[in-house]
Write a structure and sequence with these properties.
Chain lengths: ~400, ~600
């Protein structure tokens, strides 16, 4: 049979591709010597719709590494390999296999969203490589196996604190905007439970999709339920948009947002509209704790901007992992042992971190009540909102 | 009553925003007969150019608008020159692939130049608002409305009374005839792209002002909505596009008032489907006549498929079986993904290639298959093999029933209808929490197993996928060369002729979609059980676009081509990972887009040609 010219070139391309693959699959890693750097694998979004969060992670990681590597861990440097997955399950699975096959990697951080992280979990669990999902708030993430760990805020802790803040502000009837993702749903359920205990009535809930930009109709719904306050369970991007569109409709009810809105971008994007917004956050620039002040100062020096929630979390995670490696040893099993045994690791977000070895989660985060004043996050002084006057 | 009034105002405001987008898309669809996937990226580019003008150069608003329109017009001309003109005489579908590639390139460029962080646009005009009932409208709302109305009116006049306008309309009606009458068709396309892109860019800028935020990925969703809006009014019909957009805005607004924000897009796409079924030419057309385009046949370029000797195929299959012996786990998982997406591509190539019904909603089938078998295993404890079989059957039936209303559509209308169906499936999964867990999803889905053997390791999963792919490919090969395959191709080439010959179109289209659903369902089941966790975002609409890309790349209807296409599109991004290294990883999707554009230039009929 005569081969067509085009098919021949196709064949050549295919062959070449195959060759490259085979070559790259041959390279296996030699045993580690004592001076080689310790390697961490990071799986997360650097391109695609969630790329902004991956970029913040990097800033947090790099800052932490500057600090860790000035001393080193038993004379060795710490490094990370960041593989882009676009927070897409099919790429996260492939990257998981890549990390597992690389013997140098002793712990993995990520992925960003639950569908990607939890699709990769079985692979990490089987290989005995700790998957440290530091943004994985899905309540069942750490139930994937004893190698799934997380220092993400469990909403078990932070959502009720958010409701407590609403209560402290004297609000009795609230309308809620929540992101319709696994995170938004679980957070809301826990928030609503606590709100009910406190006697706060939820007059309306609007669940919106992550890509939503226009909230006019939803705001009209909330407004018509006549609340005396509005609660956000959102990220900073949509939180800022919500605040703007709420104020544009001439609604001046107090807004109480949750911790993931803590970002300079929230103020930058929200402008005047976010003035006076209350935030139930995990750390604040005015927080006098030395680890917070130290972190913020260094972040400003290195990047010439303010840190946000995601960068702070990434920074915290890297410090924590370094402590676990130091404690348990620079092996895959060592990291797990380290996480089980570390005690009171200093943390920007939590103050101090100790793991519950049953749930593989952190207990009792710190709650800082903030309010935005003159374009800055400030600690709430306890004064009640002058609402209802404008209503 | 008061609520009704408020939601009406809300709906009109957002409808005006859709209108800006829909007008440009309608224009391009009318003349070039192309779903321009890059239009959303042009819209994004407009916003970023505007942002640069305002924050870096401090241009006044009017000058900014001018620069934005000029830049985007040039960008549009470039897209026409690169993505459309060289492919004019090849398969009609080739430009669609090119625009997908171009949109990847543009979105990624924006991310590299301006960072992926959302940017804020300082307020440029008075933020004064006029209260209207309980709601209010601002100066910007009025500006947006006037821009969309004025540009619509200008376009109408231009198309109706100028020589160039006549030429555009003539080209839209019959490109070849127009050319014969001395119309410079290339110039017409260029002008169309320039005008449409200038409008698209302007709308991007206005929307950025409206929401006060820009992101590099803002275009995709906007493009989808613009299409839905344009279609409701009738594609290629400029005043219709505006009215359709306002209607869409209104319906969404009332929908949110009734059921809440999560149902917003559900309303949009259900309306889209209803309009497509009742009035495929848009709500302003007379009666239920079909679109005037003789599209079905023209979709497929006549090309000779590449014949691959049987010995080579057997050899490659044997090698594929032996691969796990030499490959490491990483590449094994890459190939497993490629095999499973190969099954998806196989399923799509049957409807999109053999039957000529371009579906852009195939991710919906994966989701149906995956959720069905996950629920059967979790809730009823059925063994995997039974769950797999049942899920595939359910996908076949549901897939067929969902697409059934769209059977009488042809060409691009099928594509748009299936986009809508895919979205409806995903939004139903999101909102039907009692069954699907909604956004929290389903977890602890057991791994695939047969007779007590669990396909847990990479190797066993690879072999399972390989056996399924080869088995399904052989089945499909039998199907395609049977009388059913011949009939489907006849329908693809000429529906009217096929019907005149006594073929029951709906029955055969039904068979094609059922078979396609069965195959896609299997891919969905295996993916789901190997992930062990799924939620509404696992199978999103980017997978539908990816599947279509695989099929077009391989050569439509070509079984081996679709598998090759899947292999390349899964393997290439992974190869780029190692080739680029960590510091250049952000260029990965840029190169991917570039490769797509080059591939389509090189082999517009697909790598192995259309069967």
């Amino acid at each position: 049979m005569k081969l067509h010219r085009a098919s021949r070139s196709v064949g050549v391309v295919a062959l070449l591709a195959l060759l490259i693959i085979m070559l790259s699959s041959c390279g296996s890693n030699s045993a580690q010597s004592s001076n080689e750097p310790i390697v961490i694998g990071v799986s997360g979004p650097l391109t695609g719709t969630n790329a902004q969060y991956g970029e913040q992670w990097k800033k947090g990681f790099d800052l932490a590494l500057d600090e860790i590597n000035s001393k080193g861990i038993n004379g060795r440097k710490l490094e990370y390999i960041f593989e882009d997955t676009q927070a897409d399950p099919k790429q996260a699975v492939v990257v998981a296999n890549k990390f597992v096959a690389n013997e140098k990697i002793i712990v993995e951080l990520g992925d960003f969203a639950s569908p990607a992280s939890m699709a990769a979990s079985p692979i990490y669990q089987r290989a005995g490589l700790v998957q440290f999902g530091f943004t994985n708030s899905h309540p069942d993430f750490t139930k994937g196996g004893d190698y799934m760990w997380s220092n993400s805020l469990t909403q078990d802790d932070s959502a009720p604190l958010h409701a407590d803040y609403v209560h402290a502000l004297g609000l009795k009837k609230i309308g809620v905007f929540r992101l319709n993702t696994d995170w938004g749903k679980t957070t809301y359920d826990l928030f609503a439970q606590r709100a009910q205990e406190l006697g706060i009535e939820i007059s309306a809930v609007e669940a919106y999709l992550p890509e939503e930009k226009d909230f006019r109709s939803a705001i009209t719904n909330i407004k018509n339920s006549n609340p005396d306050g509005i609660v956000f369970i959102s990220y900073y991007g949509d939180g800022a948009l919500l605040a703007q569109q709420i104020r544009a409709q001439d609604i001046h009810l107090p807004i109480v947002a949750n911790g993931s809105n803590y970002s300079p971008k929230f103020i930058e994007l929200g402008g005047d509209a976010v003035e006076g917004v209350y935030l139930s956050s995990n750390f604040a620039p005015t927080d006098p704790r030395p680890e917070v002040q130290e972190y913020l100062k260094k972040f400003r020096e290195k990047y010439n901007e303010e840190s946000d929630y995601f960068a702070a979390h990434a920074y915290d995670t890297m410090i924590l992992i370094a402590a676990a490696i130091e404690k348990g040893g620079a092996t895959r099993e060592g990291v797990k042992k380290g996480l089980e045994t570390v005690k009171d690791v200093p943390s920007v977000v939590y103050g101090k971190v100790t793991f519950n070895t049953e749930t593989r989660r952190v207990q009792e985060p710190v709650d800082v009540r903030l309010v935005i004043h003159n374009g800055n996050f400030e600690v709430w002084d306890g004064s009640l909102p002058a609402s209802s006057a404008s209503n | 009553m008061n609520i009704f009034f408020d939601q009406t105002i809300n709906g009109l405001v957002i409808g005006n925003i859709y209108a800006l987008m829909a007008v440009g898309l309608a224009l391009i669809f009318g003349t070039a007969n192309l779903i321009n996937f890059a239009h959303g990226s042009v819209y994004m580019a407009g916003a970023y150019v505007g942002w640069t003008c305002v924050t870096y150069f401090g241009f006044p608003l009017f000058l900014t608008f001018l620069v934005v329109m000029l830049f985007c017009a040039l960008l549009g001309m470039l897209i026409e020159r690169v993505g459309l003109r060289p492919l004019q005489n090849s398969a009609r579908i080739a430009p669609l692939l090119a625009t997908i590639g171009i949109s990847f390139i543009l979105d990624q460029l924006a991310q590299i130049i301006f960072s992926p962080q959302p940017l804020a646009l300082p307020p440029l005009i008075s933020t004064k608002r006029f209260s209207l009932g309980a709601t209010s409208i601002g100066v910007l709302d009025i500006l947006i409305a006037s821009v969309s109305l004025i540009s619509g009116a200008l376009l109408y006049v231009f198309l109706r009374y100028t020589r160039m306008g006549w030429a555009i309309r003539a080209t839209a009606q019959d490109r070849d005839a127009a050319q014969q009458m001395g119309v410079d068709v290339n110039r017409v396309n260029q002008v169309t792209f320039a005008i449409a892109s200038a409008l698209g860019g302007l709308s991007g800028m206005l929307v950025a002002m409206y929401f006060n935020v820009l992101t590099p990925t803002m275009g995709f969703q906007a493009g989808l909505k613009g299409f839905a809006a344009g279609l409701i009014g009738g594609l290629g019909n400029v005043p219709g596009a505006i009215i359709g957009s306002l209607l869409l805005g209104l319906i969404e607004s009332y929908g949110v008032a009734l059921l809440g924000s999560s149902y917003r897009n559900l309303f949009a796409f259900v309306i889209l489907l209803v309009v497509l079924v009742l009035k495929p030419n848009g709500i302003f057309s007379k009666g239920r006549q079909l679109p005037p385009e003789p599209m079905t046949g023209t979709f497929i370029a006549s090309s000779k498929p590449v014949q691959i000797p049987r010995s080579v195929l057997i050899g490659v299959s044997v090698l594929a079986f032996l691969l796990p012996i030499i490959s490491n786990n990483y590449w094994l998982s890459v190939f497993t993904t490629a095999l499973l997406y190969g099954i998806l591509a196989l399923s799509l190539t049957l409807v999109a290639g053999t039957a000529g019904l371009m579906s852009i909603g195939h991710a919906g089938l994966l989701a149906i298959g995956g959720y069905t078998s996950a629920l059967l295993s979790l809730r009823l404890g059925l063994p995997f093999a039974l769950a797999l079989l049942l899920a595939a059957c359910v996908t076949a039936i549901l897939g067929m029933l969902l697409v059934m209303p769209a059977f009488r559509l042809r060409g691009h209308y099928v594509s748009i209808a299936t986009i809508g169906i895919g979205e409806i499936v995903s939004l139903t999964i999101l909102n039907w929490e009692s069954l699907t867990g909604g956004p929290v999803g389903l977890m602890n889905i057991p791994p695939p197993s047969l007779f007590g053997f669990e396909f847990y390791s990479n190797r066993s999963l690879y072999w399972l996928s390989l056996v399924l792919l080869l088995g399904l490919a052989l089945l499909q090969w039998q199907l395609v060369r049977s009388h059913i395959g011949r009939t489907l191709r006849a329908i693809r080439e000429d529906e009217v002729a096929a019907q005149a010959y006594g073929i029951n179109l709906n029955r055969y289209k039904g068979i094609a979609f059922a078979a396609s659903g069965f195959i896609a369902g299997i891919a969905g089941v295996i993916l789901t059980h190997s992930y062990t966790y799924i939620n509404n975002e696992t199978f999103n609409n980017t997978i539908s676009v990816l599947a279509l890309t695989m099929v077009i790349l391989g050569g439509r209807g070509n079984i081996i081509g679709s598998i090759l296409g899947a292999g390349l599109l899964i393997v290439i991004p992974e190869l780029l990972r190692d080739v680029l290294g960590e510091s250049f990883i952000v260029y990965r999707m840029l190169l991917y887009g570039l490769l797509l554009v080059l591939f389509v230039r090189w082999r517009p009929q697909g790598l192995l040609g259309t069967v």
